[in-house]
Write the structure tokens for this entry.
Amino acid sequence: MTSAPSPLTIVHVVFSSRVAGGERHCLDLAEAQAALGHKVHVVGPRRSALAGAVAPGVRYHGLALPLLRGWRLRRVVRRLGAQVCHAHLGPACKATATLGPEVARVGTLHVGYKEHHHAKLDGVICVNQAQRQRLSAYRGRHRVVYNWAPEPTQASQASGPGLRQELGLRPEQLLVGSVGRLHPAKGFDLLMLAFSAQAPADAVLAILGEGKQREELEPLAAADPRIRLLGFRTDVDAALRSLDLFVSASREEAFPLAILEAMRAGVPVISTQTQGPTEMLDQQPATLVPIEDVEALGRAIREQLERIRAVPREQRRPVAYELSRYDRRQSVAQILDFYRELIDLTNGGSSHHV
């Protein structure tokens, strides 16, 4: 009879002040690993929303200053006796790469491979096949493991009047939505221009999220009273179920959790042909449009809303997407298997070249 593998001591690293897509993945992965009996820690800034968002079985370690992050991280990892240090997003990957050979150093490519962030890591996790195909210069181990949509929380499914009622919409009005941090990469400026130009006069666009681009986007919203910038929301899952159409106008995306959550909610999806969505939506009942093509995006929104409006609201049914590859339990198991592969290589002193 084969004995179960010993529990691991795992340190996740993410140097963010807010919780967005990559941070949510990190927190949910940490929670899942802790639930399996592993000793799991998260290292991040002391004054971060992450500190209050970790699961009860996960311990958070806040670093006071951004200076000497690699040295500070090394002290935490050694004190905990960690076997794995898993970094999320560029600054964390850069700091993790400075650690010594006593720990397996892993990074998830939430955005994409960058040599100065990832080249010295022992292994990288790709979130889509296109990333794997572009790793010819990388000398470590790599594996494709698809992300998943974290389980809805009580807050994300909050009951109440609902987004449509909150916005004062009439039953016949169509609600278009998008979710994400307000950043140029997300293309909210393109979405707002496309919607203003071609959406039906009584349609409404709701954008859920906060970020540094808000000041730039506010004049675009002010120019069209149909556009609402709703800021950060905790009731995302409930809000998605209120939408008639979800749109991602991103200029770049590796694996957008918002699209996966919209698919889980059964909402029709339009997305630009960025790296992640092109793979996620292949052979799915969704619409892809060229990146930064406002005319094509607006036309797709108009045509999709016309199709939706042609069906009485009481007869509309959720869109059936194929989501089996985005299974949380399966992906967590694959990540743990990858950890053990890297630990064996580290302990054996073997080459990490693929």
